[in-house]
């Protein structure tokens, strides 16, 4: 049977007679090839010559061709979807947009599409993961806000769902991940404050149920001991508290007799609040108190040039997470799907 496309049907699509999206028949009409040949060329089938593959793929890009997901799923059992399960409250300083951008850029050359599956802190974080698996609505999952013994990791492992985590677990299950070295960050931050002559430091830490809390606390404690500094405990606030809460609690801490003269901040959003708390208490940043903060977008020096910052590349994290989950889908070795990015040097404002 001839797989050539009927000219009148495809011509209508190309010339605007139809408003439906371009199909394989559209590409076949424009290239003079059969639908089967076009389909194989789009899949990089080795039996199709390189020149033909390139011509078909160029035309497909030019006309905005996208495979029909329902048809792909019927033929292959795949959705060509990666689900990013994201806390909807992870939002100041561009974290969410940069993470999505990084993932999307890495998926762009592949057949996969990104779908964001949101949840809030008031919901069970396992529920959206369970939904994705029970409905078979994605081929792979990316999760963040990782706990040392994370029930989502256990559930996906038990159900054979390929996944990658933004953070590390400590539960005896090897899995793909990308993480930022928060232990190294805290050590560098304390070292900088020590060099500035600060003696009494407070840590605005992550919530204690998250893996990176332990990493950051360990680095902070090690560096305090190394430089002979003392800690001013600040357990009432975490980076997940509201800006108003952190501001109020920081001001209260600074009005105590044994106040801190330096802060290590675990997140840029929390640093906005720390600066406000310092000023509410009547102190001057850079004179009475210094702050070293992690930041995921270059905004903090616009707030106060006296801040010291360490950059975390969230777009890189997104790209690495996409690479990891795609690698898991393809059955690649786990060790090659685990990555840890190092903090940049502490930066001061240079005008």
From TrEMBL:
Pfam families: LacI, Peripla_BP_1
Entry keyword annotation includes ATP-binding: no
Keywords assigned: DNA-binding, Transcription, Transcription regulation
Domain HTH lacI-type: 22-76
InterPro entries: HTH_LacI, Lambda_DNA-bd_dom_sf, Peripla_BP/Lac1_sug-bd_dom, Peripla_BP_I
Superkingdom as given in the UniProt entry: Bacteria
Protein name per UniProt: LacI family transcriptional regulator
Species of provenance: Aminobacter aganoensis
Taxonomic lineage of the native organism: Bacteria, Pseudomonadati, Pseudomonadota, Alphaproteobacteria, Hyphomicrobiales
